Amino acid sequence: MAVWIQAQQLQGDALHQMQSLYGQHFPIEVRHYLSQWIEGQLWDAIDLENPQEEFKAKRLLDSLIQELQNKAEHQVGEDGFLLKIKLGHYANQLKSTYDRCPLELVRCIKHILYTEQRLVREATNSSSPVGGMMDSMSQKYQQINQAFEELRLLTQDTENDLRKLQHNQEYFIIQYQESLRIQAQLTSLATLPPADRQLREPALLSKRATVEAWLTREANTLQKYRLDLAEKHQKTLQLLRKQQTVILDDELIQWKRRQQLAGNGGPPEGGLDILQSWCEKLAETIWQNRQQIRRAEHLRQQLPIPGPIEELLNELNSTITDIISALVTSTFIIEKQPPQVLKTQTKFAATVRLLVGGKLNVHMNPPQVKATIISEQQAKALLKNENTRNDSSGEILNNNCVMEYHQTTGTLSAHFRNMSLKRIKRSDRRGAESVTEEKFTILFESQFSVGGNELVFQVKTLSLPVVVIVHGSQDNNATATVLWDNAFAEPVSVFRSVSQEISARAMR
């Protein structure tokens, strides 16, 4: 059911809250007469913090105004005449309000829709499993977007505090220079006759005492400002970690699991656009806070004041570096998996993507990605961060590809279009194990820098397990192996001895 239809059934305080969402900035009549059109637009696909998205927002504003004008033109009769005038007025009003800042219109409508959905959800106990699932998804998305808004406000707050700190510190330095000048004048009095010295010295001593007292007070104030700013950054980083955990450990892992099940004929895993927009918001917020912490460190070095701030800033810098490292390494993913049944001497394709590549300007120095095939044992050792030799388990032709940035979609990806497995090196098989039970994986590796070589990352990602065959007669058994693995593998695992774990469950 459309959200607006349900919103009109709200009562009491919920109805009052819903009505308070509207006003001159967005009349409730526009919501009513364009409800279907409004709820049909992809407002969440627009990144409010990206100025380059403004043209999308402008297009939505123009479409909204056109829809209003069309609705006005179709009004007939006496009541229709008044409504026609009113809707025409609203069209002009919205154009005047948002024409120079269309992203604010998107922000306004997103807030309205999220709030309406929350009010409807709170007022309705859904008994439908599907409805409950959709409500749960909507609620999760709302929580993610609310957390991003909180992060935006926190980051803006610390930016304002940092500017205030810088201004106060600059004034402190000026006054410190003044104290040095006064001291120099006092020193020079020694060369004057006693009468002249006695005449000028008291005023200079009084002035020095006043300035030094002010410097002492202001030094304590600056130290408090620095500590308060560091505490705010700690709070921001805690929320950043929490938000990143939700996006990477929940949403991205679920997408990978859907991708794995899609290999068994399940529903498509879905696009990456929303995930990428979230990851890019994370990257932008992390980088802004990292730059703020570096500026705070520069101010501390410029004017050292004894205290715990140096240790706090070192901890903050270490934490923010860990956070951005986790984000970059986790968002290097395989968008299009190679075939899980891989025949030698046969062309195959794959696509890898860096979800934060565009936001961090990685494409300014396009990284190269290398693909190699490794065994199940090598993959397990890699996942445990054990030292492994760089030996591959075979030879892949055309296994190097440069990542390309696609301006229209904002994606950074490498498309391996013509890979071919020239040969495979198998392990010693024991017992009745068949070649169609032996699993391998394609390892994709790359290295790139962020922020003008400030940070250099080595990233790796593993494909879903593949079984290598040399003849078409092996295809069915190989397919059975990967189907079984896809169905029962843990979402975070690449390899497992699935049959043994299923047997162990059955015995308990």
Automatic annotation (TrEMBL):
GO MF, any single term: DNA binding
Keyword field contains Nucleus: yes
Keyword Cell division annotated: no
Biological-process GO terms, alphabetical: cell surface receptor signaling pathway
Keywords, in A-Z order: Coiled coil, Cytoplasm, DNA-binding, Nucleus, Phosphoprotein, SH2 domain, Transcription, Transcription regulation
Signal peptide bounds: none
Cellular localization per UniProt: Cytoplasm; Nucleus
One Pfam family here: STAT_int
Residue intervals of the STAT transcription factor protein interaction domain: 2-126
Sections of the chain in a coiled coil: 134-168
GO cellular component: cytosol; nucleus
UniProt name for this protein: Signal transducer and activator of transcription 5a
